[in-house]
Amino acid sequence: MKGNNSLANEIASLKIKKNAVILAHYYVEEEVQKIADYVGDSYYLSQKAVETKAQIIVFAGVRFMGESAKLLNPDKKVLMPDEKADCAMAHMITVAEIEKMREKYDDLAVVCYINSTAEIKQHSDICVTSSNAVQIVRNMKEKNLFFIPDRNLGSYVAARVPDKNVILNEGYCPVHEKITVSMIQHKKNRLPEALLIAHPECRKEVLELADFVGSTSELIEFVGRNPAKQFLVATETGVFYQMQKQNPDKLFYSVREDQICHDMKRITRKKILEVLENETNEILLDPSFIEGAVKPLERMLGRF
Ligand code: 13P
Ligand code: SF4
Known about the structure:
Rossmann fold, binds 1,3-dihydroxyacetonephosphate, 16% strand, 15 helices, 3 domains
């Protein structure tokens, strides 16, 4: 079996040979973050997918991330290290539900969290990520906004933009949804000094208790600039690697043992090497919806 160093060396030389770049989300394993060219939140990674000059993008993340990279780079090869790595929430809205809502309101815009399929994006007006959703919703000209698929991020945004009628969908992230107020209270009793920081995919009542709410990058930035020494972290534990690396003198605690996105954890160095070698697991999208699905992403990125 190949050791971690030999895998890293082989990946590095294949990347040069094939003009490839590796993009990784903060939720993937530490060993994968270490060999990536760029590690970040969904917004940052979509920007990097646009900027890259590489011919091959290996996306160490879940399918909607690879699909977004492909939509933004139709002429490039986007490879997924594990084709089963998917986001459950991305499938919690249907085209029929969007169409039904459009029939109900004359003035309706569909605001689509990037954690959604390419097919759903095709039926949406604009995409958002957890780091720009409030600002984008605030700037929409329409009053009625159908926020899909995440009800938790949607209700977080709605509370900050009260002049809009934000209609929520019943989707959620199973990883963040499992974090409850009673678990937080239990942990806080044992860690009275710790600040609670949470991703906006957490339940509303959890967000109400938080000292800071933000996307994965915003949470990582916050723990760096805040003088507190202990943090209770309500998001997937992949962020701990960067938090600890950048702040070796601080302590980070999860609310529960299993704050883990098992789909993100499917990505390994070995699988990255395999897809780079064989150029397998390429994202191929139905050409009939590429043009429509890229528009809301480009609008989010301010490209038109
Ligand atoms: P970020 O926008 O913070 O990267 O969140 C993506 C995600 O999937 C969170 O569950
Ligand atoms: Fe999807 Fe949740 Fe995993 Fe993020 S953590 S990719 S929202 S299932």
